[in-house]
Design a protein that fits this description.
The complex is a heterodimer of chains A (179) and B (651). Chain A is an alpha/beta fold and 179 residues long. Chain A has a single domain (33-175), classed as Glutaredoxin. Chain A has 5 helices and 7 strands. Chain A has helices at 6-29, 75-90, 104-114, 128-132, 160-167, and strands at residues 44-47, 50-56, 65-70, 95-100, 120-124, 140-144, 150-155. A 5-stranded mixed β-sheet of chain A has the order 5-4-3-6-7. In chain B, strands 2, 3, 4, 5, 6 and 7 form a 6-stranded antiparallel β-sheet that branches. Chain B folds into 3 domains: 1-160, no CATH class; 167-316 and 339-413, no CATH class; 508-609, no CATH class. In chain B, helix 2 (33-62) packs antiparallel against helix 5, helix 8 runs antiparallel to helix 9 and helix 15 (450-474) packs antiparallel against helix 16 (481-506). Chain B is globular, with a radius of gyration of 26 Å. Chain B has 651 residues and is an alpha+beta fold. In chain B, 52% of the residues are buried. The chains are: A alpha/beta (179), B alpha+beta (651). The A-B interface holds A 2, 4-5, 7-8, 11-12, 15, 17-22, 24-26, 28-29, 71, 73-76, 78, 101 and B 72-73, 154, 157-158, 273, 277, 280, 284, 291, 295-297, 299, 306, 308, 311-312, 315, 318-319, 322-323, 326-327, 329-330, 333-334, 370, 373-374, 376-377, 567-570.
């Protein structure tokens, strides 16, 4: 046995450990939300399209909705916008926006230019509601069920994969049109 | 147009790197002289292409071309010009490009230096560097292309991460990477020597200046990162044993072992196979550093670009590169036979201890850094390893190293005696102990057990480092730069030991809540909080506090810490304010608004903390001085000097 082979052997072992480590890595990117399985935090915030009106979490009870945190300053939000519009067209569930620490005029012109995928947009100037929801960075989306319980949290932009693999399977089948 | 030009240049660079690797390895291997001769042209061409690509990307940043994805993600129209340029390496893709540029620059330098080396050996070194460069270029083009366009273009950029908008961190990556990449040169020399089967001590001499320069850069880079963490992260620590910090520290430790082991191989023809292994190890750890930071395998505050696909690519590349080198090692190293012996008390023994202790230190850091990963991979649950593990285990190998150092640098080669230095060393030790105990208990009037020990070791190292140069000067012997550089580096180390001991023992930290006008006493200083006022920056708004520091009624400083809110990323950054007073660093950070005009304020008094970074700089300067020694510059002169210098000159 050649003792000069030992370093190579040790290195092979290390590569195996690192390879297993990589396989586990994607799971770590997801910051698990402590909210899952718990009631969605209540809020009452001004409506972006008419600041005199109020968007209340209590009004959203009784149906599934996707709670999407965004802002015009958020670069990745632009990337997911197209997908949000598709979700709206599919009419599977309403998307409720939380415009986080944003300028109202800019937010309105963003929605005029790119299209408005939201049923309602709540305005969170101070970021208090975002803190209640444990928002780590925009964009984030929360799936909330009719009982007002948070079922799933997506960190980062809503992609087609996230939509078909994570969100759609969590919805009841009868909720889907045509089934 | 520019991004496409840059992309194209990068593809050409990849092809040229492939040619460089092929000509450099196959040319000498098959005895084709014309192939061997073509290597330098490939090196030059590759450098020009990489520089063009980097130039194009910088131009995109300066011109605010937000149709380029990487620019849109890492810049903003409000970003000052200086940071728009340094934003180049603000994230993963650009950092890689920087790595490639520095590798190309090192390769050009080696190609110029290689003119003095035997032709075939020089070509092999360049060939191995070509393989490394090819791997990184392929990685960049395949998984991390910085020239991708956005359609439609972004209106404005997402801005450079605010914590990176800082002068020290702006220049930190180039310096650190210069060190990382420099170890590629030592690696290439080792591989070339193994390919050639010519494993005499000659390759070690050729490698020494390159390795020392790389080591010096790496040390500066680490110190700069630590300095940044100290004043920017706001919590006043200077070392966190964070995976990313460890990733740069491990190659430094092994690199330190390597420069000492190279000295033994060069001077005495010993430790040959061990030196080869260290050369491979130092570069492997540099690459592993890249892997750990960029793959998302280890979660750290620094790793803002984590992507498993990239991780797999790096892992495969790492496996081929290092696995290949280690296979070559297993094949060639058995041919080596050491003929020379040495006594237990000879300098060789001390350098052996040096190597063992440094590698053990690197191994403990390695184990601590990878333990969370291994535990996770084997599904033993998530563990986190922090200072309670790192501090004592690291000390365990460092204390004996420091204690042996003054003896080792004064021991003669081969023969186990300290020449006529025994009495001098005992005297310096006595002086060091008296000084250390005096300072620890006299000036500060308190201290932990390790305080006088650490201080005595630090002072002893400094005094013992001066023995040889003074001795040479008195006997009117020549004082080559290699000797001066070694002494300087060891003096730097002694200063670092003193500084670290003092900081660890005598730091005072206090978190207080103060209303405007109120004051508090910390140490012998009075801190009066004068309230807050809004401050406007170029791309952020801030709240600035004013704190007046006095000592016995005499004014010391007015500190103005800030809490900044950057416009684009809405990230709050704590900007600490620091003042030096009588060797103490007074650090003040503004915490939270507690309402009713009261603010939480963090106050720290750290004695001698600046000396840590100064000491690191002195060590690096010592390395640079030693690397510039005449004996490395001319191969012929070195061989002529070698027999006489071997017994005299320092390692």
């Amino acid at each position: 046995m050649n003792r000069f082979l030992l370093p190579l052997g040790a290195f092979v072992l290390l590569v195996i450990v690192l390879a297993i480590g990589i396989r586990h890595a994607p799971e770590k990117d997801v910051i698990a939300s402590p909210l899952i399985g718990k009631a969605a935090p209540a809020f009452a915030l001004p409506d972006l399209n008419d600041l005199s009106r109020t968007v209340r979490s209590s009004e959203l009870r009784g149906r599934w909705y996707l709670f999407n945190v965004w802002g015009t300053w958020c670069y990745e939000c632009r990337a997911e916008h197209q997908m949000l519009l598709e979700v709206q067209r599919a009419a599977v569930l309403p998307v409720i926006g939380l415009d986080w620490k944003d300028d109202d005029a800019q937010a309105r012109s963003w929605l005029t230019q790119l299209g408005n995928p939201y049923e309602r947009v709540a305005v969170d100037h101070l970021g208090r509601t975002a803190i209640d929801w444990g928002v780590y960075g925009a964009p984030e989306s929360f799936l909330v069920n009719p009982a007002g319980i948070v079922v799933y949290k997506l960190t980062g932009p809503l992609t087609r994969e996230a939509w078909t693999q994570e969100i759609l399977p969590r919805l009841p089948r009868q909720g889907l049109p045509g089934s | 147009m520019l991004p496409e030009l840059g992309h194209f240049a990068l593809i050409l660079a990849l092809l040229l790197a492939a040619l460089q690797a092929f000509f450099g390895i196959a040319g000498p291997g098959l005895g084709r002289e014309r192939w061997t001769g073509a290597v330098t042209s490939a090196v030059a061409g590759q450098f020009v292409m990489v520089a063009t690509a980097v130039g194009c990307l910088i131009a995109c940043f300066v011109n605010e071309d937000f149709s380029v994805r990487y620019v849109a993600e890492n810049s903003n129209s409000a970003l000052p010009l200086f940071y728009r340029v340094t934003a180049l390496w603000g994230a993963h893709e650009g950092s890689l490009l920087l790595w490639i540029l520095l590798l190309a620059a090192w390769t050009v330098a080696v190609a110029i230096g290689a003119a003095r080396l035997p032709r075939r050996f020089g070509a092999r070194v360049l060939g191995v560097l070509g393989v490394v460069s090819f791997g990184f270029l392929l990685f960049t083009l395949a998984t991390s292309n910085p020239f991708l366009r956005l359609d439609p273009p972004a209106g404005d950029g997402a801005d450079l991460n605010p914590i990176l908008q800082d002068p020290a961190l702006a220049v930190h990556p180039p310096i650190l990477y210069t060190g990382y990449v420099g170890f590629a040169v030592a690696f290439a020399f080792a591989c070339a020597a193994m390919l050639e089967g010519r494993l005499d001590q000659q390759w070690a001499r050729w490698t020494r200046p390159w390795t020392t320069v790389a080591w010096a850069f790496l040390g500066c880079g680490i110190a700069l990162g630590s300095f940044w963490a100290y004043y920017e992260l706001g919590w006043g620590g200077f070392w966190f044993w964070d995976p990313v910090e460890n990733a740069s520290f491990m190659p430094w430790l092994v690199g330190t072992a390597l420069i000492h082991s190279l000295a033994v191989t060069d001077k005495r023809g010993l430790f040959k196979s061990w030196t080869l292994l260290l050369a491979i190890l130092a570069f492997s750890l540099s690459m592993l550093g890249t892997f750990l930071v960029r793959s998302g395998v280890l979660v750290s505050v620094h790793s803002f670009a984590a992507d498993p696909a990239r991780g797999i690519f790096i892992l495969v590349f790492l496996a081929l590169m290092i696995g290949g080198a280690l296979t070559l090692y297993a094949w060639r190293a058995p041919l080596l036979k050491s003929t020379a012996g040495f006594d237990l008390g000879a300098r060789e023994s001390f350098l052996l201890f040096n190597n063992v202790l440094l590698v053990v230190a690197a191994a403990t850091v390695f184990a601590g850094t990878l333990a969370p990963l291994v535990s996770d991979a084997l599904q033993l649950g998530t563990v986190s390893v922090g200072p309670p593990y790192f501090n004592p285990t690291f000390m365990l190998s460092m204390l004996p190293l420091m204690a042996l150092l003054p003896l080792g640098i004064n021991a003669a080669w081969k023969r186990g005696h300290l020449r006529d230095r025994q009495r001098t060393l005992l005297m310096t030790l006595a002086v060091a102990v008296i000084l250390a105990v005096g300072v620890a208990f006299g000036v500060y009037a308190h201290g932990a057990v390790l305080t006088p020990v650490g201080a005595a070791l630090g002072i002893w190292i400094i005094l013992a480092s001066l023995v040889d140069p003074i001795d040479r000067w008195r006997r009117r012997l020549s004082l080559p730069r290699a000797v001066l550089g070694m002494s300087l580096a060891h003096i730097g180390l002694g200063l670092a030991v003193i500084a670290l001991t003092t900081v660890q023992s005598f730091t005072v930290e206090r978190d207080v809540a103060l209303a405007a006008g109120a004051s508090t006493r910390v140490g012998s200083y009075d801190f009066r909080f004068d309230g807050v006022a809004p401050v406007e920056g170029p791309n952020y708004d801030a709240i600035g506090g004013t704190i007046t520091v006095t000592r016995d009624g005499a004014p010391v400083a007015v500190l103005k810490p800030e809490k900044r809110q950057y416009w684009v990323q809405h990230q709050a950054i704590t900007q600490t304010s620091i003042h030096m007073s009588r060797g103490n660093n007074l650090l003040v950070a503004l915490g939270d608004d507690l309402g009713a005009g009261r603010w939480s304020i963090r106050i720290q008094i750290r004695p001698l903390v600046t000396l840590i970074w100064l000491a690191a700089l002195i060590m690096a300067l010592g390395g640079a001085l030693a690397a510039s020694d005449r004996r490395y510059r001319s191969a012929r002169a070195a061989e002529a000097v070698a027999p006489t210098a071997a017994g005299e000159a320092a390692g």
